[in-house]
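Example record for the data management plan.
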Amino acid sequence: MTPANARKIAINEIADRKLEASPKETEIKKSIFETFGSYVFNTQVMRECLPKEVYKSLEKTIKRGEPLDPAIADTVAAAMKKWAIDCGATHYTHWFQPMTGLTAEKHDSFINLTPEGEAISEFSGKMLIKGEPDASSFPSGGIRSTFEARGYTAWDPTSPAFIMESGNARTLCIPTAFYSYTGEALDRKVPMLRSIEALSRQAVRILHLFGNNSPGILTTVGLEQEYFLVDKKFYMQRPDLINAGRTLYGARPPKGQEMEDHYFGSIRPRVLNFMADCERRLYKLGIPVKTRHNEVSPGQFEIAPFFEPVNVAVDHNMLVMETLKATAEIHGFVCLLHEKPYAGVNGSGKHNNWSMMDYEGNNLLDPGHTPRENAQFLVFLAAVLRAVRKYAAVLRIGVGGAGNDHRLGANEAPPAILSVFLGDQLTEVIDSIIEGREEAKKHGGFIELGASSLPPLPRDATDRNRTSPFAFTGNKFEFRAVGSSMTAAPANIAINVAVAAAIDEIATKLEQAVSREEDLNVACQEILQEFFKEDYPVIYNGDNYSGEWPPIAEERGLLNLKDTVMALERFTDREIVEIFEKYRVLSEREIHARQEILLENYSKTIAIESQIKENMGRTIILPAAMEYQKIVADSLISMKGALGDAADLTTHKEFLEILTTHISGLRGALNQLREATEQIETNGRSALEKAMEYRSRILPLMRKCRDHADVLETWVSDDLWPLPKYNEMLWIY
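Corresponding structural encoding:
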């Protein structure tokens, strides 16, 4: 069977596909409230199965970040083991997140043997608290040599343990940090936890000045996850999707998202069946899924949960991605999480809705209703503006990646220039403070500058700006630049560190004023006036997609780190290293290691795509195009032989000329691509130099190959074209 025939057969089989078998009726009849968290060792389970004193001690660690008491470890481990076995678990694993961007796990059985050969269950406090997976094959960025295999996992009690179910296997998963023998972080959880503590330490200084004695704060995040679904029969015929997660070839379809008929449209039964199944699995894991809907592009969808503490939210988002992929397979789909799986239609991201709250649950980015609440809100708002303006490079590094470069800056996602949307009303309040006015011009609302008060603002005081990378949406900031396939940890580490540094600046000035016995409100007003004036250039309420914005941003002195390599080059800048070290989030050695890992990952990603593109071009596209070229040439010869000079061969010649031009062009571009890739790989270059070469030399050649191939797709007979096309993959499912 030829590839073209396989494509046609797949279309017919997909068209005739019936809905996958639904879960058992008893499973469907269970309410969300019955199933929610049933596979989670949560506080409710702990309260029921742990002694009161042990539970209270562990609760302080979970809710307030107090150090874990090692004396309770054996008791917790025994309760966790019993609960897991009662849920059907046979193994446990320390579930961690190395610098691969994925999760990792090594399963150990609960079973052990007595001297008499009898099987018993075993799981001690030591096994719970610490593990030692072989770390030799994980990226370390030079922190450790490959022959030095020690890496340790340490239980993170702030993120609940859970049961992962796959077929007939159930495994107890214990969220853990991953670090080296020498104590450096080998993952993203360690710096995440450090950044949470760093922000908390600085934020409480402001809270205490305003009479709030909360011992700490929590960073909260809601992560909206976008993804594509494609039928597995199409997927298996696309080597680029299998190996790169995105299509490296493919002409734009006659109909993409132009009609805007997919966004929030009626969800097709097969997709809804998949979504419902996925949600049931997520509910068991205690993941508070709230929203599901069609996204802008055909074949694109979104799932979104409630807000959670950032460490838990990041862990849960990793589970969401794993569950989406696993459930899709059951339903005959493949879930594509790449930021740009299809050229010419919207890509995917995850909107990172970030906020802060004290331990009593008060949102620190809620404007409030009293002068004191207003003043506190304005101080934290000023800190966020300072963070985005002054530490834009840190935030840009947090969303860097070869996949995300295809999306950032396009008219579908925020540009690489970081700015803040506040809306007219809040911007007017800031204008009033800067100018020392007592009344906001546009919206009324008396501002008592002596008390630094803000008129009560409704929750939706502004419209939404979907083009802004960092938009205020009532009581949180929506960071829209995070890529769909990546862990959200780096972005939130970046925000936490940048805001901590900004709060530190403000808190220091306020504390100095108070120590001089100055009135807090007057000092607050003066400091806000100074900060708002300096950071005003980062506020932009217009269309960030417009061509007018980049030159305006340049005039304002805002950074425009257009791609990942430009951003990562800045990672080891002295001022960036200093803030990570100052707030004890990353050491200079850890930063250099991460820069090395991320640059190597960038180069490897493009190198893999380059080889796939060359292989597909030579073994799939050129043979199909040349076969059609021969058919057209044979037809031209036959026509001339049959009709002689009377034959009108214009169409045949035009076809042949176009085919020959682009076959030759593709062949030449593929040769250039191979030669350039070999040169880069054989020359000894640093990680940064290699990444620069891949960006400047390989990406343009890959586009050149695609340009010729995509023209051929529109001219070669549909009966001969071997690859599933966009109009099939996007619309047939």
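Summary line stored alongside the record: The radius of gyration is 29 Å.
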